[in-house]
C-alpha cells in the first residue's frame, strides 16, 4: 500500500503521523511510505532520518494526498486537506467530528474512509489510541493550570503545593478516566489538595484504592459540582463521551461563585468542552478570562510536548496501521471489530452512532457498509 504522511498544519502542531521506526516497519512489510519534507523537523527528525528508514520524500501537501492510498495524520484535517481527500482513500487520524460539522461535511463530500483514533476500542472497553494522548494531556493539564495560576498569567497567585504554614491549592478534577487519573497523579505529586468527581461509583472505588486518603472522591451531582468548584483554585475538565459532544457541567453562573483568578483547564475541548464558557484556544494564545476566571482551552494540548506525544501515539497506532496496509480497509475492519468502531465516515455515510447523533445526521452501521 502507498501510505502518505503530510506535515501537520494546525497552529503550533509539531507531531508527525509516523516516526522513522514506524516507517521502517511498514517498509519491511512491503509498503511504500511517502513523507512530506520537513514533517518531522519539529521533533528532531530530519528528512534524512526518514529516508534512511526507507521513506520517499515529497515536496508538497498536494503530492502526499494525490499519491497515497492511506493518509496517516495526528490532528483532524483542516478544510483544505479535507478537499484533497478522494473516494475510497483512507484517512487514519484524530477527527473529533462531534463539535466540527464543517469537517464532517467536507469528509462526507469527499467520499473518503475516515477512521478516528479516538473511537477505536479494545476488548476491555477502553480507547487504546486516545489513551496515550489522554495520559499526556492529563499530566500537562496540571502544569498548564499551575502556570496559569501565577499572577503574571492572570491567575490568583497561588502555588499549587503551598509551603509550610500556607495551605496548598484546591484542585477539582471532573472525570476519573485516563485524563482525570493522570491529572490527579501529578496534582498530588505537586502537593495540592485534590478532589475528583465522577458519576461512576466503580471508578471512584478504583481511585480510592489507588490513591487512598490522599484524595477525596465525590459522586457527581449538580450540587456537588457547584460546591467544590466554588472552592477550587484549579478545575480540570476531563469528561468524555466517546465520539459524542462533552456534557456542559459548569455553567457561567457557577463561575460567579469562584474566586477571581481561579483557573479552569478544559481537556474536553476537542469534543466541544465541558464548561459552558469554553471556546477553543491555541498554544500561541492559550487563555482568556470570563467572570474573572482564567480559561485554558487548547485543543491540541499534547502538541506542546510533541516528541513524547508522537512516540506514545505511534506505539499505539502502528499495529492498526500495519493491519490496514496489509489487508486494505474493508478486510482489516471485518477482521477487527474494535478497529471497525473507529470508522466515523465511509463513502458519504456517518458510521459511528454517537458522531451521527451529535451532528444530527443519519447513522448507518459500519458493518452494513463494509462488504
What brief labels describe this structure?
globular; seven-stranded mixed beta sheet; 16% strand; 14 helices; alpha/beta; eight-stranded mixed beta sheet
Task: Write out the strand line-up for the largest beta sheet, numbering strands in chain order.
Answer: 3-2-1-4-5-6-14-15
- What would the average pLDDT be, to the nearest integer? 96
Q: Proportion of β residues? A: 15-25%
Largest sheet: 8 strands, mixed
Number of strands: 15
Shape: globular
Helix content: 25-40%
Rounded to an integer in angstroms, the radius of gyration calculated over CA atoms is 21 Å
Low-confidence stretches: none
Helix-strand topology string: EHEHEHEHEHEHEHEHEHEHEEEHHEEHH
By oligomeric state, this entry counts as: single chain
How many DSSP H or I helices? Answer: 14
Distance from first to last alpha carbon: 20 Å
User: Which structural class do you get from the secondary structure elements?
Assistant: alpha/beta
Amino acid at each position: 500500500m502507498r501510505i502518505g504522511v503530510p506535515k501537520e498544519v494546525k497552529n503550533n502542531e509539531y507531531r508527525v503521523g509516523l516516526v522513522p521506526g514506524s516507517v521502517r516497519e511498514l517498509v519491511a512489510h512491503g509498503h511504500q511510505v511517502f513523507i512530506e519534507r520537513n514533517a518531522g523537523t519539529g521533533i528532531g527528525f530530519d528528512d534524512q532520518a526518514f529516508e534512511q528508514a526507507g521513506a520517499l520524500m515529497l515536496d508538497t501537501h498536494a503530492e502526499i494526498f494525490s499519491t497515497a492510498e492511506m493518509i496517516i495524520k495526528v490532528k483532524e484535517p483542516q478544510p483544505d486537506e479535507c478537499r484533497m481527500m478522494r473516494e475510497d482513500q483512507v484517512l487514519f487520524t484524530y477527527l473529533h467530528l462531534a463539535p466540527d460539522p464543517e469537517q464532517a461535511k467536507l469528509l462526507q463530500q469527499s467520499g473518503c474512509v475516515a477512521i478516528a483514533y479516538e473511537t477505536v476500542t479494545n476488548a476491555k472497553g477502553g480507547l487504546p489510541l486516545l489513551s496515550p494522548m489522554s495520559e499526556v494531556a492529563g499530566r500537562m493539564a496540571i502544569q498548564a493550570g499551575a502556570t496559569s495560576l501565577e499572577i503574571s498569567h492572570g491567575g490568583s497567585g497561588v502555588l499549587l503545593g503551598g509551603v509550610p504554614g500556607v495551605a496548598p491549592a484546591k484542585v477539582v478534577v471532573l472525570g476519573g478516566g485516563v485524563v482525570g487519573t493522570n491529572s490527579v497523579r501529578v496534582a498530588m505529586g505537586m502537593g495540592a489538595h485534590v478532589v475528583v468527581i465522577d458519576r461512576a461509583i466503580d471508578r471512584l472505588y478504583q481511585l480510592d484504592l489507588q490513591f487512598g486518603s490522599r484524595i477525596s472522591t465525590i459522586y457527581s451531582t449538580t450540587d456537588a459540582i457547584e460546591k467544590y468548584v466554588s472552592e477550587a483554585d484549579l478545575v480540570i475538565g476531563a469528561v468524555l463521551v466517546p465520539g459524542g459532544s462533552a456534557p456542559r457541567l459548569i455553567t457561567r453562573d457557577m463561575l460567579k461563585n469562584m474566586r477571581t483568578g481561579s483557573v479552569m483547564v478544559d481537556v474536553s475541548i476537542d469534543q466541544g468542552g465541558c464548561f459552558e464558557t469554553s471556546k477553543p484556544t491555541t498554544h500561541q494564545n492559550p487563555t482568556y478570562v470570563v467572570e474573572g476566571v482564567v480559561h485554558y482551552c487548547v485543543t491540541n494540548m499534547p502538541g506542546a510536548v510533541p516528541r513524547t506525544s508522537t512516540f506514545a501515539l505511534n506505539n499505539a497506532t502502528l499495529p492498526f496501521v500495519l493491519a490496514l496496509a496489509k489487508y486494505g480497509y474493508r478486510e482489516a475492519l471485518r477482521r477487527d471489530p474494535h478497529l471497525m468502531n473507529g470508522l466515523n465516515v465511509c463513502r458519504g455515510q456517518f458510521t459511528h452512532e454517537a458522531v451521527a447523533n451529535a451532528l444530527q445526521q443519519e447513522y448507518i452501521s459500519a458493518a452494513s457498509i463494509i462488504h
